[in-house]
Design a protein that fits this description.
Layout (H helix, E strand, L loop, with lengths): L1 H6 L3 E11 L5 E4 L9 E3 H9 L15 E2 L1 H6 L7 H9 L4 E13 L5 H7 L5 H11 L1 H8 L2 H28 L3 H14 L4 H26 L5
Parallel strand pairs: 1-5
Antiparallel strand pairs: 1-2, 1-4, 3-5
Helix pairs in contact: 2-4, 6-8, 8-9, 8-10, 9-10
Keywords: Membrane, Transmembrane, Transmembrane helix
InterPro entries: Nucleotide-diphossugar_trans
Length: about 230
């Protein structure tokens, strides 16, 4: 991907395509259909696409994939705890972003991933996300560069990302029949972000109510019966 930077002096970030693999290295899929962009794209437009939920199918990744110019990386304070989003919101916005779908990064997923182990312990990531947004300075950068309407969009995105992450952890634990992790996650929600507690309790209630149906469906599928 070095050629992307050499070819275009305005290119400040670059990405390969992502190939998803399991713990044994077997290919599970790729992200080509959700990365339908040209060799070079306006980084700010990619950031806006992120704020809109990738409605343009221009950029998606399971985590940090962008290679960032060293001078820009150092100037803006280096990596932070929300690099999954700051790679676009903090770095790509300063120029053009290159993309080479023929270059590939292999992204392994397995049960021993740190985030999965943390979820099993009831971690809802509220504190780390709040601190990550603060240390990233994304809000300050956008407030100084763009108008109020655009700045409000990134603030709304931040709030939604944090709340949806909390709710997703609670929902995932109960959907995977992990009752004790679900209880621990509720405890952490109450301690760290009580404003999300009632909604989290409702998610757990609905999950418990649906558990018998989910278990029966799983049994019937193993027996080859559909309903």
């Amino acid at each position: 991907m070095v050629s992307l930077f050499l070819e275009n002096p305005n290119c400040v970030t670059a990405a390969p395509s992502v190939v998803l693999i399991d713990i044994s290295g077997n290919i599970k899929g790729n992200n080509l259909n959700t990365n339908r962009r040209k060799r070079f794209s306006d980084g700010f437009m990619l950031a806006l696409n992120l704020l809109n939920g990738n409605e343009g199918k221009l950029f998606s990744a399971p985590g940090e994939v962008l290679v960032i110019r060293k001078d820009l990386l150092l100037r803006e304070g280096g990596f932070d705890r929300i690099v999954d989003v700051s790679q676009l919101l903090k770095y790509a916005i300063f120029g053009e972003s290159g993309y080479d779908p023929d270059a590939q990064v292999f992204w392994r997923s397995h049960a021993g991933q740190t985030n999965k182990l943390s979820k099993a312990k009831g971690e809802v990531f509220y504190q780390s996300l709040m601190e990550g947004w603060k240390e990233s300075r994304v809000l300050e950068i956008w407030e100084s560069r763009y108008d109020q309407e655009t700045f409000d969009r990134v603030k709304k995105f931040k709030d939604h990302q944090i709340s949806s992450t909390v709710y997703a952890v609670v929902s995932e634990n109960i959907a995977n029949y992990k009752l004790w992790p679900a209880i621990l996650s509720l405890k952490n929600v109450l301690c760290d972000c009580p404003q999300f507690f009632l909604q989290s309790c409702w998610i757990v209630f609905l999950g418990i109510f649906n558990l018998p149906f989910l278990i029966l469906r799983k049994i019937f599928r193993k027996l080859g019966i559909s309903f």
